[in-house]
Design goal:
The chain has 151 residues and is an alpha+beta fold. The chain has helices spanning 2-22, 29-59, 62-65, 93-104, 136-150; strands spanning 70-76, 79-86, 106-114, 119-127.
Length: 151
């Protein structure tokens, strides 16, 4: 009997750890496992995206690496902080990036831009609708595509 209680307690502890790691609010075992499965799929997609970025970076020559855009996207409580730095500026770059934000449904709440010699953008954006489908990786990929299209 005591062994069964220890096993049950260990299972409950493990399920609670799984809930914590996956940010699940589910209460029953099946729902916790479904949430964990979804979380694992999201992580797999992020890894694939990062591997794809690394593949692009590794295939570039040393001279091209200096010209690659530096794009960082950080998730905030309600939105994203987006930083873009390019060695060169080209006409239409800002418009292209803002159009990418619009396609994602992001509203720009605050932005600082410098387009004199290099291109620098720091923007705070949030989703204009109540859909949590956009994450930092999606925003970064959209900005990178916009930069590529503006060249």
């Amino acid at each position: 009997m005591a062994s069964r209680e220890r096993t049950r307690a260990a299972l409950q502890h493990t399920l609670q750890q799984l809930r914590d790691v996956t940010n699940s609010s589910a209460l029953n075992k099946a729902s916790i496992i479904v949430d964990a499965s979804k979380y694992i799929e999201e992580l797999k997609q992020k890894v694939e995206g990062l591997n794809a970025e690394l593949g692009i970076a590794e295939s570039s020559t040393a001279s091209q690496i200096d010209e690659l855009p530096m794009v960082t996207v950080k998730t905030l409580k309600k939105g994203f902080l987006i930083n873009v730095l390019l060695e060169k500026n080209c006409s239409g770059m800002l418009v292209s990036i803002l159009e990418a934000f619009e396609e994602l449904g992001l509203d720009v709440l605050d932005a600082r831009v410098s387009c004199e010699d290099s291109f620098q953008l720091e923007a705070v954006g949030r989703e204009s609708h109540k859909n949590d489908s956009v994450d930092a990786q999606v925003v970064k990929q959209a900005v990178l595509r916009a930069i590529k299209n503006a060249d």
